[in-house]
Amino acid sequence: MGHITGVLQHPKIRAPILVRPLCALLLSSAACRQGEEAKPTPALGLDSARARTAIVAAESLAAVLDEWNKAEVVKRLSEAGLVVSDRGEKIRQPFLSVPGELLAVSESDLQLFIYPSIASREADSRTLQPATAAPIDAAVSWRQPPHLIVSGKLLAILLTHNEHLAERVADVLTARHAGPTPPP
After folding, report:
1. N or C: which end of the chain has fewer CB within 10 A?
2. Residues 159 and 87 placed together within one structural domain of the fold
3. What are the 10-residue block averages of pLDDT along the chain, 184 residues in total?
4. 181 assigned to some structural domain
5. Which of the listed residues 64, 93, 109 is the one where a domain comes to its end?
6. Which residues contact 60 (CB under 8 A, 6 or more apart)?
7. Are residues 46 and 83 in the same domain?
């Protein structure tokens, strides 16, 4: 069996995606059948180091495919120097179609809603006023000023009086979809 080598460069992402580990992961996944126990595939020669490499490659692919999750949000905000903690609470806003989770970001509440598709997130966010993070035909009584943030499949509402914090959180969460800066 020949080896697939090379680097796939995504047009919006500067970091390359390693093709070989990703192919190994996909091939090993395809080899597993429903109800059967997963077994190492000698032809692929997957050992634990290669399996870890394949997982990292799969995570890179998930980022390309816009797979937001709570861990990714926490990681990005923490890497930006913000203090983030998981409040461990599920939340529900009656005007949004998906449940959310509550995070604390530098002592402010961040309501995090992750949608199954961009289209479903757009359907919900289209009904909201950006300045109030509330439906056009309703008023919501927020504890602090709301800041609506949308990025791909993610919709977040940051409740804070701190405008600088709101800008930083928005920059971190929307930078993922901004793409590379065009040359001057």
Report:
1. C
2. yes
3. 38 40 42 42 54 62 69 95 95 96 96 96 95 92 96 96 97 73 46
4. no
5. 64
6. 15, 17, 18
7. no
pLDDT at 64: 58
How many domains in the chain?
A: 2
pLDDT on residue 62: 52
Tokens representing 176 are: 């993922």
Domain range for 124 is: 70-175
Q: Are residues 15 and 75 in the same domain?
A: no
Q: Which pLDDT score is estimated for 50?
A: 74
Task: Classify residue 79: in a domain, yes or no.
Answer: yes
